């Protein structure tokens, strides 16, 4: 593999709670799970960190991560960012960037905002895919942060964007975010909230666990968020010391294109349900969503 990853030994050296013997035990467990793909020691260590070193929680997270990403090809189906039209459109429409400066408590801030405000170019599944890729690639290359705080800037979002939201896609992704993705999700923060925020919340809250609802913050402007996340972490447009949004967008494109081989590897880590011990899993069993939603009704 030619792409860059942090060495797993660096994680052991930096985190005395991360035990090599625990990771080894999980690797031995993985060998007895024929439905799961080959998983690297680095990936297992990141999963263990994300689950606060709990062994059983890590096993569940690993299985959920690979199962959901395999089943939900509508979200996670990108094969190669250089040739995937949906991902390229997302890169031109959205900024989804793990900001380089961590908070004082060691949290990574992932900023999400619109670059192209034309609703015709907005696809929510591609946004989720881009968030997943950018965050997972960052973690593999830099090691896991203490936590992840997601900041969604709603500037430029209009009601036509809301009408393009798909409840099934949202349910799938929020399940993945909370149950499988190898991060410690600390907060979900919306800034510059829109007048129809109540409708957005009515759509997403049923799929959020209490812990995530309790760490959900709404800000009418950018100033109030600085009480929770230092201004210095943010791009220049927010008064911070980070580079401009335009530069960050170009860096996101480079991150995706330069790590195409890594992304192809991650996408090809799929589950073979025919080899799972016990009953195979499918989207209907996990989410109970196939055909269960009527067309989104709006007052």
Based on Cα principal axes, name the global outline: globular
Q: How big a fraction of the residues is strand?
A: 5-15%
Would you list the SSEs in sequence order as H and E? HHHHHHEEHEHHEHHEHHH
**How many H/I helices?**
14
The end-to-end span amounts to 52 Å
Mean pLDDT level: 92
Question: Low-confidence runs (pLDDT<50, min 5 residues)?
Answer: 290-299
In total, how many beta strands? Answer: 5
The oligomeric status of these chains comes to: single chain
Major sheet strand order: 1-2-3-4-5
Q: What Rg do the Cα atoms give? A: 19 Å
Helix content: 40-55%
Please outline what is shown here.
This protein is an alpha/beta fold and 299 residues long.
Written overview of the protein:
The protein has about 300 residues and is of the alpha/beta class. The chain has helices at about 10-15, 20-30, 40-50, 55-70, 75, 85-95, 125-140, 160, 165-180, 195-205, 210-215, 245-260, 260-265, 285; strands at about 95-100, 105-115, 145-155, 185-190, 215-220. The chain is globular. The termini are far apart. α2 (about 20-30) crosses α3 (about 40-50) and α3 crosses α4 (about 55-70). The protein has a five-stranded mixed beta sheet with strand order 1-2-3-4-5.
């Amino acid at each position: 593999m030619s792409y860059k990853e942090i060495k797993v030994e660096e994680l052991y050296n930096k985190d005395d709670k991360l035990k090599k013997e625990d990771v080894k035990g999980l690797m031995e467990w993985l060998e007895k799970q024929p439905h799961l793909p080959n998983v690297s020691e680095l990936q297992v260590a990141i999963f263990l960190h994300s689950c606060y070193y709990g062994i059983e929680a890590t096993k569940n997270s690993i299985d959920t991560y690979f199962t959901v990403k395999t089943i939900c090809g509508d979200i996670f189906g990108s094969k190669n960012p250089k040739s995937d039209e949906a991902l390229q459109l997302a890169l031109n429409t959205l900024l989804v960037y793990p900001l380089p400066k961590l908070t004082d408590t060691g949290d990574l801030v992932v900023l999400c905002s619109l670059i192209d405000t034309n609703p015709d170019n907005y696809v929510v599944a591609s946004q989720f895919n881009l968030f997943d890729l950018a965050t997972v690639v960052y973690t593999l290359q830099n090691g896991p942060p203490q936590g992840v705080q997601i900041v969604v800037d709603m500037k430029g979002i209009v009601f036509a964007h809301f009408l393009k939201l798909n409840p099934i896609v949202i349910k799938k992704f929020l399940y993945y975010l909370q149950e499988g993705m190898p991060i410690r999700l600390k907060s979900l923060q919306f800034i510059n909230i829109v007048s129809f925020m109540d409708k957005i919340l009515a759509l997403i809250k049923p799929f959020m666990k209490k812990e995530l609802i309790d760490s959900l913050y709404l800000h009418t402007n950018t100033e109030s968020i600085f009480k929770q996340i230092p201004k210095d972490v943010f791009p220049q447009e927010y008064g911070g010391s980070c580079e401009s949004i335009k530069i960050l967008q170009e860096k996101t494109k480079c991150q995706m294109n330069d790590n195409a081989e890594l992304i192809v590897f991650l996408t090809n880590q799929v589950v073979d349900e025919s080899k799972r011990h016990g009953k195979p899993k499918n989207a209907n069993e996990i989410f109970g969503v196939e055909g269960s939603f009527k067309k989104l009704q709006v007052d």
